[in-house]
């Protein structure tokens, strides 16, 4: 059908443009955020690109949901504004005739959203947690960077190294500040290197320097000069790899351990994302209606408010189920059932003068009725 091909073509073009805009904004935001973490020592600079990619995978479902909703609204709103909808309605179509082509357009997106919500979302969060755990277990040597103050993993020592040799075996002009038993000690040295003791412990061996010990605010500081001074490198104990956050737990495990209320809340969120997308796709068709006498941005403002309200209510349902204030069987479907009722009422309101299903008017009957009412 002509109108279906025209609608599909415009939806595809608009969805591509909207997706590119959203993914660009998302990439820019995540890049600034992750680069800030790397600059402040909260993330490994070598993992920046990996973290950005995992963040994109994790948020892909949300991006696709917004892409679907906005693209359908933009296309149908433009058709109302340019009076194209008047042409289609005059040809005997009803607003319910738009449901089938819109769902055909949205079907691949809904499949990807379902996959992302159930598989890609937890996998990306699991990988991010693994990178964060690996970075948290780094030793003090891995944090040393020339020209920068770096805090040790144990948060009780600060390093500064002015330069590092090309082979990364020696450092020059070293400053180390630490706290032991309420006293502050400061060590400065011209150069140093790394040594491994027989017991396996590693030390930063400083040469030709001084150590200052004392309590801040008191004059009894002790000053020592040394030719060699060893600073033990802290090696944090490995963390439990199975201690992953709920967002990184595979969906299959959530259902196996469904007795856990936190897992039940996560199930509500993951199942709710595809249902949220489907509801917004169906809602966009009647919501795109535009009265030429009203402003052009009213429906778009309403769309933003509806999306924000829907997602917030979904998060609220997740929290209620996780807190055992709402049963899982009700929490999964209640919000979406209410949304379906509202969608049906909107369709009925838009077609109440034309009927729920498209049908062509009978000219003879119309003229007869018109003549009978004179």
UniProtKB/TrEMBL annotation:
Any one of the GO BP annotations: transmembrane transport
A Pfam cross-reference name: LptF_LptG
Entry-linked InterPro entries: LptF (IPR030922), LptG/LptF_permease (IPR005495)
Keywords: Cell inner membrane, Cell membrane, Membrane, Transmembrane, Transmembrane helix, Transport
Coiled coil in keyword set: no
Cellular localization per UniProt: Cell inner membrane
Keyword hit for Cell inner membrane: yes
GO cellular component assignments: ATP-binding cassette (ABC) transporter complex
Bilayer topology term: Multi-pass membrane protein
Transmembrane segments: 12-36, 48-76, 102-124, 267-288, 300-322, 328-348
Name of protein: Lipopolysaccharide export system permease protein LptF
UniProt source species: Pandoraea pneumonica
């Amino acid at each position: 059908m002509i109108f279906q091909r025209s609608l599909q073509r415009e939806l595809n073009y608009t969805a591509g443009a909207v997706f590119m805009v959203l993914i660009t904004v998302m990439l820019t935001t995540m890049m600034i955020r992750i680069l800030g973490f790397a600059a402040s020592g909260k993330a490994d600079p070598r993992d920046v690109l990996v973290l950005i990619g995992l963040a994109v995978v994790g948020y892909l479902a949300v991006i696709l949901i917004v892409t679907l909703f906005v693209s359908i609204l933009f296309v149908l709103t433009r058709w109302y504004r340019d009076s194209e909808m008047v042409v289609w309605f005059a040809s005997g179509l009803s607003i319910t005739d738009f449901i089938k082509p819109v769902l055909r357009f949205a079907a691949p997106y809904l499949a990807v959203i379902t996959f992302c919500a159930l598989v890609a979302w937890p996998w990306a969060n699991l990988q991010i947690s693994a990178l964060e755990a690996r970075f948290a277990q780094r030793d003090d040597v891995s944090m040393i960077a020339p020209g920068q103050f770096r805090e040790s993993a144990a948060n009780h020592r600060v390093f500064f190294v002015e330069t590092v040799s090309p082979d990364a075996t020696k450092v020059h002009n070293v400053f180390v500040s630490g706290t032991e038993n309420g006293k502050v000690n400061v060590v400065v040295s011209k150069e140093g290197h790394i040594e491994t003791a027989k017991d396996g412990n590693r030390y930063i061996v400083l040469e030709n320097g001084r150590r200052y010990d004392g309590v801040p605010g008191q004059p009894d500081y002790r000053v020592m000069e040394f030719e060699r001074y060893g600073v033990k490198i802290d090696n944090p104990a490995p963390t439990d790899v199975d201690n992953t956050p709920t967002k990184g737990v595979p969906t299959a495990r959530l259902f196996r351990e469904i007795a856990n209320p936190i897992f039940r809340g996560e199930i509500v969120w993951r199942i709710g994302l595809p249902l949220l997308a489907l509801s917004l796709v169906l809602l966009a068709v009647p919501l795109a209606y535009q009265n030429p006498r009203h402003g052009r941005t009213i429906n778009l403002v309403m769309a933003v408010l509806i999306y924000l309200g829907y997602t917030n209510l979904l998060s609220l349902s997740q929290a209620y189920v996780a807190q055992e204030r709402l049963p899982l069987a009700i929490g999964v479907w209640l919000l979406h059932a209410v949304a379906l009722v509202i969608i049906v009422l909107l369709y009925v309101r838009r077609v109440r003068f034309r009927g729920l299903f498209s049908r062509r008017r009978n000219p003879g009957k119309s003229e007869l009725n018109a003549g009978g009412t004179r």
